[in-house]
Amino acid sequence: MDYLFYLREGPGAAPGPETGLEVEVWRPTLLRPLRAGLPLLPFAAWSAFHFARVFATRDYRVLLLAGPEGPVHRTCLLPAHFRFPFMVPGDLQAAALWTRGDLRGRGIALAGLRAALATVGEHRVWYMVREDNLPSIRLAEKAGFAFHARGGRRRGALAGLLDRFELQA
Asked: Which GO molecular-function terms appear in the entry (predicted)?
């Protein structure tokens, strides 16, 4: 499967329209290395990357949106690391976006992604998507990402944990 890589350069996005949802930006700490409600994988691995300094910077964070009934969206921002050799220190990747199924198509993912981008300052932000995921492609474009390159996955060891994503020349 091929992937499309989008890039957003410059200052972070202005937050989207008010959704009435609670916004939380979570970062791992020694006392709270995992956030309740997030799946163990991949979040335990990303917290381990954060503490072991596998990530190029200490900028790993998860933006969460919640309503009265609980979580409705998350956007993760991952710093550059070995799986994405084209990223440079200071780059971030918007990854592992999730919106509760019954709320998809209502602009919540766009609001969450824009809120996450509003936290990044001048960092470049990457967005990787499978080429057949049209809703995610539209989301990236609405959030101001520009198509940068096609790429693929190079298989590594440990059941995919060491796979690398590379841009095609």
From this structure: acyltransferase activity, transferring groups other than amino-acyl groups
List of E strands, 22-119 = 22-26, 61-67, 70-79, 92-99
- pLDDT (tens, 9 = 90+) of the chain, 169 residues, equals 699 999 999 776 666 656 789 999 999 999 999 999 999 989 999 999 999 999 999 999 999 999 998 899 999 999 999 999 999 999 999 999 999 989 999 999 999 999 999 999 889 999 999 999 999 999 999 999 999 999 999 887 665 667 899 999 7
> 52 is written with which tokens?
């072991």
* Bridge partners, residue 25, by sequence: 63
Enumerate domains of the chain plus CATH numbers: 3-167 (3.40.630.30)
